[in-house]
Write a structure and sequence with these properties.
Number of helices: 11
Strand content: 15-25%
Low-confidence stretches: 1-7
Order of helices and strands: EHEHEHEEHEEEHHEHHHHH
CATH topology of the largest domain: Spore Coat Polysaccharide Biosynthesis Protein SpsA, Chain A
CATH architecture of the largest domain: Alpha-Beta Complex
Oligomer: single chain
Structural class: alpha/beta
Shape: globular
Radius of gyration: 19 Å
Number of strands: 9
Mean pLDDT: 94
Pfam family, one: Glycos_transf_2
Number of domains: 2
Keywords: Membrane, Transferase, Transmembrane, Transmembrane helix
Protein name: Glycosyltransferase family 2 protein
Domain Glycosyltransferase 2-like: 12-172
Distance between the termini: 42 Å
CATH class of the largest domain: Alpha Beta
Transmembrane segments: 285-302
Helix content: 40-55%
Largest sheet: 9 strands, mixed
């Protein structure tokens, strides 16, 4: 459903979703309490061909609120859904928020402050875990946060050597369009575990001369379900990151690069230090999933 364009708006907040209506409804309804108080923001929900009750929910909530627009993207995949939002967007900024997150009360205030105060062309915020289904005793908050991606001693600023999460991310629309949006051959797609489409796009922006930033003050909590609090999930995730590494970072698939990046990853392993810190075999094995990254790296290397 497409409504009249809100030309006066500065930000289009985009939620891409597929078959997660339970958490989508919590995210949307909490976000609306903020959007309804803002004259600069509107919400766009991209239904990525859901087969549950997502379409019915979107229709219901859209009819109740003029600040909600929605489209259906029939090509399954997060990259496809994000690109569909770009094509539909008519504001200066396009802002992506995951469909299973709750934002801080000052989320829109911080968004506008950062966009207005810094020369960023794109920037990301901080996420920490949301244990809506409960928390396993051995699982640590640091396993599901992106705080390690940002400079340790700064609350916000320019990103020089790392990238921000795609689940809480703001982009100026024109630069994002200029680099072709998001790739569709990597990133989450239906039940396939895959990552990195947002890093690929941020690299393209940086190489084109655009400025990337971050702020730890722009915050959300992100669902960490029980299935992700598992050793199997951690090792599967790291395998996928290794497998897709070559495409994410546009690296040449040769033996020297395979050796270099495998060695770098394995050198970061510190099982003894991890055990002293966590005092948990499960937590240590979770952290040792870097080994699975190397397996994935080799798999991706062989997939020429």
């Amino acid at each position: 459903m497409t409504k009249t364009s809100f030309i006066s708006h500065k930000y289009t907040i985009v939620i891409c979703t597929r078959n997660r209506v339970k958490y989508l409804s919590k995210t949307v309804e909490q976000l609306l309490t903020l959007i309804n108080q803002s004259n600069e923001s509107k919400l766009l929900i991209v239904n990525n061909n859901s087969t549950d009750n997502t379409a019915s929910y979107i229709k219901f909530i859209s009819e109740k609120n003029e600040k909600i627009d929605s489209i259906n993207c029939t090509e399954v995949g997060l990259g496809n859904a994000r690109n569909a939002a770009i094509s539909h967007c008519d504001t200066e900024w396009i802002v992506y928020l995951d469909d299973d997150a709750l934002v801080a009360d000052d989320w829109l205030i911080q968004l506008n402050r950062i966009a207005s105060s810094y020369p960023f062309d794109a920037f990301g915020g901080l996420y920490t875990p949301w244990y809506a289904e409960g928390k396993k005793a051995w699982f640590y908050d640091e396993f599901e946060t992106n705080v390690h991606m940002f400079p340790k001693d700064e609350s916000e600023g320019i990103l020089k050597t790392s990238y921000f999460s795609g689940g809480i991310a703001a982009y100026k629309l024109l630069p994002l369009k200029s680099v072709g949006g998001f790739p569709t051959d990597i990133g989450m797609s239906n039940n396939k575990i895959s990552y990195g489409e947002e890093i690929h796009t941020q690299r393209n922006l940086a190489m084109a001369g655009y400025k990337l930033g971050f702020s730890k003050l722009w915050k959300m909590i992100h669902l960490t379900p029980l299935k992700k609090q598992s050793l199997v999930w951690s090792w599967k995730k790291q395998f996928a990151l290794g497998r897709d590494f070559w495409e994410i970072y546009n690296k040449k698939k040769d033996y020297e690069n395979l050796k270099r990046y495998s060695t770098q990853k394995l050198h970061k392993l510190s099982p003894y230090e991890d055990f002293k810190k966590f005092r948990s075999i499960n937590a240590c094995v979770y952290k040792m999933a870097s080994i699975s990254f190397v397996f994935g790296l080799f798999f991706g290397y062989m997939r020429k």
